[in-house]
Design goal:
Layout lengths: L1 H26 L4 H10 L3 E4 L2 E7 L5 E3 L2 E3 L6 E8 L5 E10 H13 L3 E6 L5 E2 L2 E10 L1 H12 L26 H8 L4 E3 L2 E7 L6 E2 L2 E2 L7 E8 L4 E9 L4 H10 L3 E7 L9 E9 L1 H13 L17
Antiparallel strand pairs: 1-2, 2-5, 3-4, 3-8, 5-6, 6-9, 7-9, 10-11, 11-14, 12-13, 14-15, 15-17, 16-17
Helix pairs in contact: 2-4, 3-4, 5-7, 6-7
């Protein structure tokens, strides 16, 4: 009887050990140096597809586009991402959402700490307050990159009171609600719901974009997306299209023929190959019509070999 009890206790102890080890392994899915980055920056993030993505959302802002109230997931979730490159160094990329008065202080902080600014541009027309998007780049050890970027991140959201009237906006109607299944069917890709925003993100897996041996994938910013909010009858959409140079004109024609406004054309990355051009667009109208415009843009690029990929519940 005693041997039976001892054997049972041994089995129980072994199972507990395996359970503990399994929980430890799960907790360590994110590399320890990336865990330290999040802790040092004091921000949330996640680790998927070999990429650490740090969230820098502008939850402090109340943004309107052409008088329509637009929630943070509609396109105001900044981010910084890291992935492993050659020689044990990280490749860092990011997209920071800034008020116009924040642009130059943040840029100076980045440059003074050894990071590159690779693009500065608008994503919208008729946005209040006026917003700009700054793309950043660097490489080195994870801890060092965190030190380099922290001073810039610490400047965001501390610009003082906004100009009078900058938060004035009308709420979009919520009835009838967006038929997200219909939007996904039109686009040919499933999306994710984040609050009042339904976002479809499509990777460019047909392109082998590299930097320092690191694969630049959807979570590093190589993607095409559309964010919808509002109702079936009155919705707004904003998005970004990642294109090769030969795809730019076909995409422009597709968007304009569906009544979507093009608001910016530019690069995000100055060192990755091949060179990718990014186009930002926006539109207002029936949700089905807007989704048709997004699908037309997808049809103009190499989307058939790409895969729809979750972009995370936080940020864009």
């Amino acid at each position: 009887m005693l041997r039976f009890i001892q054997k049972g206790m041994l089995i129980l102890f072994t199972n507990i050990c395996f359970l503990f080890l399994g929980m430890t392994a799960f907790a360590q899915d994110m590399p320890s140096d990336y865990q330290e980055v999040l802790k040092f920056l004091g921000r949330t993030g996640d680790f998927k597809a070999n990429v650490l993505k740090v969230n820098v959302p502008r939850n402090d802002l109340h943004v309107s586009i052409a008088g329509n109230s637009a929630p943070t997931p509609f396109g105001f979730g900044g981010w910084v991402a890291m992935t492993k490159g050659e020689g044990g160094e990280e490749v860092l990329m990011g997209d920071l959402v800034l008020l116009q008065e924040e642009v130059n202080p943040v840029m100076s902080a980045l440059l003074e700490h050894g990071l590159d600014v690779t693009a500065l541009h608008n994503h919208f027309f008729w946005d209040e307050p006026r917003l700009f998007f700054m793309h950043i780049h660097g490489h080195g050890k994870a801890a060092r990159l965190a030190e380099q970027v922290k001073s810039a991140l610490d400047l965001i959201g501390h610009a003082g009171p906004l100009p009078p009237g900058s938060a004035t906006a009308k709420a979009l109607p919520s009835q009838p609600p967006l038929d997200t299944a219909k939007l996904a069917k039109i686009a040919g890709h499933e999306g994710e719901q984040s609050g009042a925003v339904y976002k479809i993100t499509v990777g460019r897996d047909d392109l082998a974009v590299k930097e320092m041996g690191a694969t630049i994938n959807v979570r590093m910013g190589l993607n095409t997306w559309a964010a919808f909010t509002g109702s079936e009858d009155h919705a707004i959409v904003a998005g970004d299209v990642a294109m090769l140079d030969r795809e730019v004109t076909p995409v422009l024609k597709a968007l304009r023929s569906h009544g979507l406004d093009v608001v910016a054309i530019h690069h995000h990355m100055t060192t990755a190959q091949p060179t990718i051009i990014f186009l930002h667009y926006w539109g207002e109208g029936p949700a089905e019509q807007l989704a048709g415009g997004f699908r037309a843009a997808l049809d103009a690029i190499g989307h058939t070999r790409a895969s729809a990929v979750a972009h995370g519940k936080r940020g864009s």
